[in-house]
Design goal:
This protein is mainly β. About 0% of the residues lie in helices and about 50% in strands. The chain has no helices and 11 strands. Strands 2, 4, 5, 6, 9, 10 and 11 form a 7-stranded mixed sheet that branches. The termini are far apart. The mean pLDDT is about 95.
Length: about 120
């Protein structure tokens, strides 16, 4: 089992950047596929990005491709989401999640709020 804690959210002007972090507990962080999802007010949860166990493969949702970058540091049990070129429509609660190989995301953090103003 793994516990996840996100941080790094905040209030930022359109065009700005943030780096979100997700710290994981446990000694087996490197075995998990990690993902970032977001949920805007009144909308469903949306996939943003994912990264495989060693960082060799990354995946992005169409709405964030080219602006967001996911990375991980297994030595620090942390996954990051660099978000650049923020738009007002990026306003959402951002969640990180962990999944074991070939399984769906089973572990979720509490989320961090990102609010973008114009």
């Amino acid at each position: 089992q793994v516990q996840l804690v996100e941080s790094g959210g905040g209030l930022v002007q359109a065009g700005g950047s943030l780096r979100l972090s997700c710290a994981a507990s446990g000694r087996t962080f490197s075995k998990y596929r990690m993902g970032w999802f977001r949920q805007a007010p009144g909308k469903g949860r949306e996939f943003a990005a994912a990264i495989n166990w060693n960082g060799g493969s990354t995946y992005y949702g169409d709405s964030v491709k080219g602006r967001f970058t996911i990375s991980r540091d297994n030595a620090k049990n942390t996954v990051y989401l660099q978000v650049n070129g923020l738009k007002t429509e990026d306003t959402a609660v951002y969640y990180c999640a962990a999944a074991e190989v070939s399984k769906s995301y089973a572990y979720w953090g509490q989320g961090t709020q990102v609010t973008v103003f114009s």
